[in-house]
Design a protein that fits this description.
Helix content of chain A: 25-40%
Structural class of chain A: alpha+beta
Number of strands of chain A: 18
Shape of chain B: globular
Strand content of chain B: 5-15%
Structural class of chain B: mainly alpha
Distance between the termini of chain B: 60 Å
Largest sheet of chain B: 4 strands, parallel
Radius of gyration of chain A: 23 Å
Radius of gyration of chain B: 21 Å
CATH architecture of one domain in chain A: 2-Layer Sandwich
Strand order of the largest sheet of chain B: 2-1-3-4
Number of helices of chain B: 24
CATH architecture of the largest domain in chain B: 3-Layer(aba) Sandwich
Number of strands of chain B: 7
CATH class of one domain in chain A: Alpha Beta
Distance between the termini of chain A: 18 Å
Oligomer: heterodimer
CATH topology of one domain in chain A: Uridine Diphospho-n-acetylenolpyruvylglucosamine Reductase, domain 3
Shape of chain A: globular
Strand order of the largest sheet of chain A: 15-12-14-13-17-18-16
CATH topology of the largest domain in chain B: Rossmann fold
C-alpha cells in the first residue's frame, strides 16, 4: 500500500490504524488454517468511518476486507490480496430491541450469543445458532448467511434479516429492507447482501426479526446400528409431520472419532446416532417427543435416551459437541466441507462417502444437520504427505460432483470464500456466474471489497485507468 | 524463537476463536492481539522465521493476565498458560529484560507527566522500596522500584513480617508444613498468622516453611526461567527433606506453582523430578486441608441470621479455575459463617491482578478490578473473601478506591475469627 494511503488512514483512525507486523499477523488468519498478511488493520467505530475507508480505498486502490470474529470456514475474511482488514469488533453496540414489533437493531460486531441472551431476557428468541455463536458476530453471520442446528425448524440467518445499512464498494451508504413484518417494495437488496461475503457491501447496522421464545424443549438421543436406519428415521419423522428444532446425525466415522478421544458410553453395535430436539409448550414438546421416539424405535433404534431438564439435555448433547474437538486430535489438517443433499438422499450420500473413503484411502468423518440434509464432510489428513493431500483434494471434488448430481448444493452455511471458488460454476453454471459478476460490478465497480473471493479468477482491485472511482 | 516443545503446544490451536469469549483482557483491548489465538499466531510466526520484532512480540505476550480462562474454555485443550510462559521465557533469553520492566523504565519514566505520577506513587510507597523487601522474595517483581499507577493505594508494609513474629524454635518441625508465601508473610502477616493458628488448631504439629525462597511464580511469569527454576529447585529440595505429611498453601498461586508449573521447570527426567512429584502430591490448598483436618468441627454453630448473605467468595483463577478448588472454599465458608455466605455476583471473574500485569499496565488492571468489586458490591456483598495473595492485594486496592466500606479478607481470617471469637 502506498504511504499516502496509509497516512490518510492514519489521520482518519489515529491509533485505531495498526500497521505493525504483530497486529497484521493477528488478522492474517481465520478458522481455515490459511494465512494472508494484510497491509494494515483498522478498527472503525461507526458507519462514517467505514464509508471514509472505502472512499479512500477507491482513491488509492487498495482492497478492504471486512472481518467479524475471523471464525469462518471458507476464508471469507482472509485478505488474499493484502490491503486493509476492516475489523468490526469495535462496532458492537446492541442498539435496541423493540419488544412490541419484535425486532432488534444491532451493529455488525455484536456477538451472536449476546443478541440471543439479550433477546431471551425479554422473552424473545433470535434463532440462528451457528456452532460458533459464542464468538462469531452478527455481521459475519450475515456476510456468510450462517446456519446452525435449529435451521431445520427456524431457518438460517437470511430468514431473520429484515433490513440492513451497508457501505457499498463505491463508498455510498445504502439502507435496505424494512423494520416491519413484511415489505415488497422493489428488489430485495437485503437478501442480495446476505451471504455476499463482504464482496458487495460492508454491513454497518442490521434490523433483525425476533420470535417469542419457546417455553420448553425436549432432547432425544437415538442410537442406531447404521446410517440407513437413522436416515429412514429422519424421513419417518418428517412423514409424521413433526418439525424438530434440531435433528443432528453422526455416522460411524464420527462416533468412532469421539470414542477414540473422549469415550461416551453407547450400546454395542452403534453405527449411527440421531440427536433430536423439539420445542414449544411443555405439553406440545412432550407429545412431539413421543412421536419422535416412536419413529426412531420403529426404524431399529437400539436405544433412545430422553431428557427435558437442562442438565440431562446437556449430557445428551455431549456426543455431538465432542466431535469437532476430537477431530483435531486424530489428524492435524481437516478439509471441512458442508454439502447439502435432499433429505431423502442422505443415506445414499453416506454410502457414497464410505466407499469414497476406502477408494481414496483417506479418513472421512461425517456428521451434520440431518433435518436439512446438510452433512459436514471432514477429510482428515496429515498435511505432510503430498500424495495423501492430492487424494483428499480429489475426494473433495468427487463429493461436490456427487452433491450437485443429487440435486444438492456444495455449501449449506460456510460460504464459498476461497475454498470453494473453483467449484462455483459447477453448481450455478456459466450464466449464474456471469450474472453474479454483473451484480458485483454494480455494487463495487472498482473491485475494492474483499477481492479474490467467490469467483475463481483473479479479481484484484482494478487499476485507476480502467475505472475512475469517486 | 526455536522451541520444539512450544511448536507441539501451539500446533493444536485451530484459530476457532473460542478464546475471545472468555478472555479477561479482550473487552478492554477489543483486538485480536490480546487473545490467546492472536498470541499463538504470533509465536507460530516467530518460530516460522517471520522477520518480526522480538520486543514487540514480547510486549504482546506480556499483555496477558494468565488467568487461564481461555485454556479452560478451549475445545482443543490448548495449554495457553504454558505457551505464554514459555514464549515469555524464550523471548527473555533473546531480548533480555522482561517487557514490563522496559515499559516501566523506558516508556513511563521518560514522559515528564508520567515521571511525576511515578515519583508521587514511589513516595507513597516508600516503605516498599528495596531494603525493606528481602531479595529472595518474589515481591520485588510485584513492587519494583518506582512503582507507578495513578490512584494506586499501596498497602503499608508492617514493621514485622509473620515469620519474624514467630518465637525462636517455634514451628520449626511438624507433620504439616505451612507455606505462607511472600505476600502473606511480608505484606499481610495477619493472613499468615490466621492460617498458621487455624491449621495448628487441627492438633497436628505444624512447621512453617522458613527461609522460603519465593515460590517462583512471579519470576516464571516474567520469563525469568533461571530464577524461577532455582527457586523451585531450592524449595522442592527443602520441602522434600522436611518430609511433611501435607503442605498447606493459603495462596492459590503458590499452590499452582508446586502442583503444576514446577513440572515445566523440573520436567520428567530432571534430577529433581521425583522430589517435585513428592511435593506436588502433598501440596494442598488451605480450604481442602480445613475440610479434612477436623478444625471445622471445633467451630461454634454459625450465628443464624447475622449479616445474611453479606460474605462472598472470589474465585482465584489459579485455585478455582486451573486447580478446580472452588467448592472446597465455599464449603469452609458455609460451615464458618453459615447464612452469612452467599454466592457473589461475578465470583469467577478474574480480579485483573495478573501478577506483573498489574505493574505493567496498572490502569487496565485497575479497571478490570474495579468492575469486579463494584459488581460484587452492587449485588449486596460487603465482605469479599478469597484465597490467593494476588487477589487480596488487588481487591484491597480496588475496594479502597471504589468503596471503602467493602472489606477483602482471606478465608483463613474468617475461620480464625470464628474459632477464637472472644
Amino acid at each position: 500500500m502506498n504511504p499516502e494511503a496509509l497516512s490518510a488512514l492514519g489521520s482518519l483512525f489515529g491509533d485505531r490504524l495498526r500497521t505493525s507486523l504483530e497486529t497484521r499477523i493477528c488478522y492474517s488468519f481465520d478458522a481455515t488454517a490459511k494465512k494472508f498478511l494484510p497491509d494494515a488493520v483498522v478498527y472503525p467505530i461507526n458507519a462514517e468511518e467505514v464509508r471514509q475507508t472505502v472512499l479512500l480505498a477507491n482513491r488509492h486502490r487498495f482492497p478492504v476486507v471486512p472481518r467479524g470474529a475471523g471464525s469462518g470456514f471458507s476464508g471469507g475474511s482472509l485478505p488474499v490480496h493484502g490491503g486493509v482488514v476492516l475489523s468490526t469488533e469495535r462496532m458492537d453496540r446492541l442498539v435496541s430491541i423493540d419488544t412490541e414489533n419484535l425486532y432488534a437493531v444491532v451493529e455488525p460486531g455484536v456477538v451472536t450469543e449476546t443478541l440471543k441472551v439479550e433477546a431471551r431476557k425479554r422473552g424473545l428468541f433470535y434463532p440462528p445458532d451457528p456452532a460458533s455463536l459464542k464468538f462469531s458476530t452478527v455481521g459475519g453471520n450475515i456476510a456468510e448467511c450462517a446456519g446452525g442446528m435449529s435451521a431445520v425448524k427456524y431457518g438460517v440467518t437470511r430468514d431473520y434479516v429484515l433490513g440492513l445499512e451497508a457501505v457499498l464498494g463505491t463508498g455510498e451508504l445504502l439502507r435496505t429492507g424494512v423494520a416491519t413484518a413484511k415489505g415488497v417494495v422493489g428488489y430485495d437488496l437485503t437478501r442480495m447482501l446476505v451471504g455476499s461475503e463482504g464482496t458487495l457491501g460492508i454491513v454497518t447496522r442490521a434490523t433483525l426479526r425476533l420470535l417469542p421464545h419457546p417455553q420448553s424443549a425436549v432432547t432425544l438421543l437415538a442410537l442406531f446400528p447404521g446410517n440407513r436406519n437413522a436416515s429412514d428415521a429422519v424421513n419417518a419423522v418428517v412423514a409424521a409431520r413433526v418439525t424438530p428444532s434440531a435433528m443432528e446425525i453422526m455416522d460411524r466415522t464420527a462416533i468412532d472419532c469421539v470414542q477414540d478421544v473422549t469415550p461416551v458410553p453407547l450400546p454395542g453395535g452403534t453405527g449411527s446416532a440421531l440427536l433430536l430436539e423439539v420445542d414449544g409448550t411443555t405439553e406440545s414438546a412432550a407429545r412431539e417427543a413421543d412421536r419422535l421416539e416412536e419413529a426412531c424405535r420403529a426404524h431399529g433404534a437400539l436405544e433412545v435416551r430422553r431428557a427435558s431438564d437442562a442438565r440431562g439435555r446437556d449430557e445428551l448433547w455431549n456426543l455431538r459437541r465432542s466431535i469437532s474437538p476430537a477431530l483435531r486430535r486424530i489428524a492435524p489438517v481437516k478439509l471441512n466441507e458442508d454439502i447439502v443433499v435432499p433429505r431423502s438422499r442422505l443415506a445414499d450420500m453416506f454410502a457414497f462417502l464410505s466407499h469414497l473413503s476406502e477408494r481414496k484411502k483417506v479418513r472421512i468423518v461425517n456428521f451434520g444437520h440431518a433435518g436439512d440434509g446438510n452433512i459436514h464432510v471432514n477429510i482428515m489428513i496429515s498435511g505432510a504427505d503430498a500424495d495423501e493431500t492430492r487424494r483428499a483434494e480429489e475426494a473433495v471434488e468427487e463429493v461436490f460432483r456427487k452433491t450437485v448430481e443429487m440435486g444438492g448444493t456444495i455449501s449449506g452455511e460456510h460460504g464459498v470464500g476461497i475454498s470453494k471458488a473453483p467449484f462455483l460454476e459447477m453448481e450455478v453454471g456459466p450464466l449464474g456466474v456471469a450474472v453474479m459478476k454483473r451484480l458485483k460490478e454494480c455494487f463495487d465497480p472498482n473491485g475494492i471489497l474483499n477481492p479474490g473471493k467467490i469467483f475463481l479468477e483473479e479479481t484484484a482491485v482494478r487499476a485507476r485507468s480502467s475505472h475512475q472511482g469517486s | 524463537m526455536r522451541d520444539a516443545d512450544l511448536k507441539a503446544l501451539t500446533g493444536l490451536c485451530a484459530r476457532c476463536g473460542t478464546c475471545r469469549t472468555v478472555c479477561t483482557l479482550y473487552p478492554e483491548r477489543k483486538a485480536e492481539i490480546a487473545v490467546a489465538r492472536g498470541k499463538i499466531a504470533l509465536i507460530d510466526a516467530a518460530m516460522g522465521g517471520e522477520d518480526g520484532d522480538a520486543e514487540a512480540v514480547q510486549e504482546a505476550l506480556a499483555d496477558c493476565l494468565l488467568c487461564g480462562r481461555c485454556e479452560r474454555a478451549c475445545p482443543n485443550q490448548v495449554l495457553v498458560e504454558e505457551i505464554v510462559m514459555k514464549g515469555r521465557a524464550d523471548l527473555a533469553e533473546e531480548v533480555g529484560i522482561p517487557a514490563w520492566k522496559r515499559v516501566l523504565f523506558g516508556k513511563v519514566l521518560t514522559s515528564p507527566a508520567a515521571t511525576e505520577i511515578a515519583r508521587k506513587a514511589a513516595a507513597a510507597g516508600q516503605r516498599l522500596l528495596p531494603g525493606k523487601i528481602p531479595t529472595a522474595s518474589g515481591l520485588h517483581y510485584r513492587f519494583p522500584e518506582g512503582l507507578g499507577g495513578k490512584g494506586r493505594t499501596v498497602p503499608k508494609l508492617p514493621a514485622k513480617g509473620f515469620l519474624q513474629s514467630l518465637g525462636e524454635g517455634e514451628a520449626v518441625t511438624g507433620e504439616v508444613m505451612l507455606f505462607v508465601g511472600c505476600v502473606f508473610d511480608h505484606v499481610f502477616p495477619d493472613v499468615g498468622r490466621a492460617s498458621y493458628e487455624t491449621v495448628k488448631a487441627s492438633g497436628k504439629s505444624v512447621a512453617v516453611f522458613r527461609d522460603a525462597a519465593c515460590c517462583g511464580l512471579p519470576a516464571m511469569v516474567s520469563g525469568d526461567r533461571r530464577s524461577a527454576t532455582s527457586s523451585a529447585e531450592a524449595n522442592v529440595r527443602r520441602l522434600r527433606d522436611a518430609e511433611p505429611g501435607a503442605i498447606v498453601f493459603p495462596c492459590g498461586s503458590c499452590l499452582l506453582m508446586f502442583r503444576r508449573n514446577v513440572f515445566s521447570l523440573i520436567p520428567k527426567g530432571a534430577p529433581m523430578h521425583d522430589a517435585a512429584v513428592f511435593v506436588a502430591n502433598r501440596a494442598v490448598d488451605y480450604a481442602s486441608f480445613m475440610l479434612t483436618s477436623g478444625v471445622l468441627e471445633l467451630l461454634p454453630e454459625p450465628p443464624e441470621g447475622e449479616r445474611v448473605g453479606e460474605i462472598g467468595y472470589h474465585d482465584p483463577c489459579h485455585l478455582s479455575g486451573t486447580l478446580g478448588k472452588g467448592p472446597e472454599a465455599r464449603e469452609v465458608l458455609s460451615r464458618t459463617v453459615g447464612t452469612g455466605f452467599a454466592e457473589m455476583a461475578g465470583a469467577d471473574l478474574c480480579c485483573g491482578y495478573g501478577g506483573t500485569f498489574n505493574v505493567r499496565d496498572y490502569p487496565t488492571s485497575a479497571r478490570i478490578g474495579m468492575n469486579k468489586v463494584a459488581a460484587a458490591a452492587r449485588g449486596g456483598t460487603k465482605v469479599i473473601s478469597t484465597a490467593c495473595s494476588g487477589c487480596v492485594l488487588q481487591m484491597r486496592d480496588m475496594a479502597a478506591r471504589t468503596d471503602p466500606a467493602l472489606r477483602v479478607v482471606h478465608i483463613a481470617e474468617l475461620v480464625h475469627q470464628a474459632l477464637f471469637r472472644k
